[in-house]
Amino acid sequence: MCGIVGLFHPQLPSVPELGMLRRMGDAVRHRGPDGEGFHAEPHLGLGHRRLSIVDLAGGAQPMATEDGAVLVCFNGEIYNHAALKRELEAAGHRFRTRSDTESILHGWREWGLGVLDRLKGMFAFALWDRERGELLLARDRLGEKPMLYGLLPDGTLAFASEMAGLLALPAMPRRLDPAALDDYLALGYVPDPRTIHAGISRLPAAHFLLLRRGEAGLPAPRRYWQPPRAGMPAPADAARELAARLDAAVSAQLMSDVPLGAFLSGGVDSSAVVACAARAVAEAGTGPLATFTIGFDGPEDERPAAAALAARLGLASHAEAGRVDYVAAARDQAAIFGEPFGDHSAVPTLAVCRLARQHVTVALSGDGGDEVFAGYRRYRFHSLAEAVRRAFPAPVRKRLIGGLAAAYPKLDRAPRWLRAKSTLTEISLDAALGYYRTVCKLHEERRRGVYAAPLRAALDGHAPSARIAALMAECDPDDALLQAQYADLHTYLPGDILVKTDRTAMAVSLELRPPILDHELVAWGMALPAKLKLRGGFGKRILREALAPQLPAELLWGRKRGFADSIGGQFRAQAATVRTRLTGGVMAESGLFDVGALGRLADEHTSGRFDHAQAIWQLLVLEGFLARQDLAGVAASRASAPVGA
Predict the structure, then answer these.
(1) Do the Cβ atoms of 643 and 184 come closer than 8 Å?
(2) What is the value of pTM for the model shown?
(3) I want to staple 55 with a disulfide (CB 3.0 to 4.6 A). Which of 6, 46, 98, 363 is the partner?
């Protein structure tokens, strides 16, 4: 795993300063502590920080072709690079290293943009073809590896693996985007292609940018891969085929010249990956696989189930108790993520990454199983809600069920079966808006209630739900489950899950690989009929059935545990600190919020009458970000579109 930085001016032939590239590289040093490399020539500068995984001696970057005409800086792993090498050598190409990076160079020369269709893996790279005068920035199909970019005032394109690499440039604009801020508070993250800064964008998953020397302006990103938007007939023996596909994906991702282990939570997804990896390692005779687990005391503790499975499979097991001060941890999120990030499970994820890094450089994870095979509870609810919607004409549903929802009291602290207001509201809405409400962290009335008037005015017409609705509309209208999965694959997976795992792992220089996100497995799994994914009250039905010969029934069919500690109680225990941070300092000085409303939010949570834990966490994270960015005193009224300066 590595860090990429670069500068490109298509029209000015000046040579970028190496000192500037080094500052950018130093800002992402944690992504690659094992080495660095820089290159500068007219129009272009490239920088690379390396975490050595494959071909430790020969994989230094930037890497060039033998004649020096094509260079690449690459972050990730190409799991089929050996097969590509054989094909390219048969076509006359000569390889000088064992590194997977070199397959990109020769692949570009042989296939041009078609190389993107041939790469299997997780990647983000910058490739410069001096003869063609073309710079290619590309990102993998699911968004496992990041690529951010922005324009400097002189027209230079700056790009980097993380926000810190861009903000190392004093000239990089730092203007808060009000729409991104609203998206963050609605969803818990800023979805692609936005970032919290109006002048900085994320290259979306499965997209590339192709820039040419001499051409003015920034072209729009172009898509090169699309997940399925309609289902397929059920395969004859879907469970057996899934088991074979998962075995192949896991085996491909075991390539490494450094120690490799796996995360193990005791849940279905990580257990599936570990079981496949353990079998592959045993067959190869490469030694036992190490597993890593973080758990929290109480009934949700994942350590006993993980230890039992590790013992059953004959694996080394490393586990620690998670002890987290979330009030303090909120301040650290901006340093890790570069912008506000509201998934509080990032805190224990960082802890398990630290544990793993004490023993290995590469770890496998089970990420992706819930999205690909419909494991989230919200998928079951959405499918049921859609069945109810289709039983009632829209006017009746909105009038009758919507009326019930309006009249039903909000019972945040009541048992789940009494909290029907949200359920009724979601059913009364159309499918896309109903699903949006299930993934929304802070609904519009809550968000707008804490905004200052200038920020509310700047957000006029912005709806975080619009992106999800547009994505769901691209899918088969008769497959409600696929619509929800498709939306998550473009928003929640790359914006939350994969950002969380990439940044926390890279913060401790650990490479994390999720085999379930093999793009061919993803396309096959998502296109399965809904009945193979959701049935009998269980999500991931087909995955559970595929693993039945390998894993114990209590693990496959038992209750899912959560990977996080309770945060609400901590916020009540530290009520004075929470209130001060929400209503004073940068939150008050920014001009973005109604501090009186923030105070009432904190007081309602402290009283125990309401559970505002998620809102408070996101606001505390935002407070830490604003303090780190030194945006105090920046009022929303000072800008029309972007907020801040």
Answers:
(1) no
(2) 0.93
(3) 98
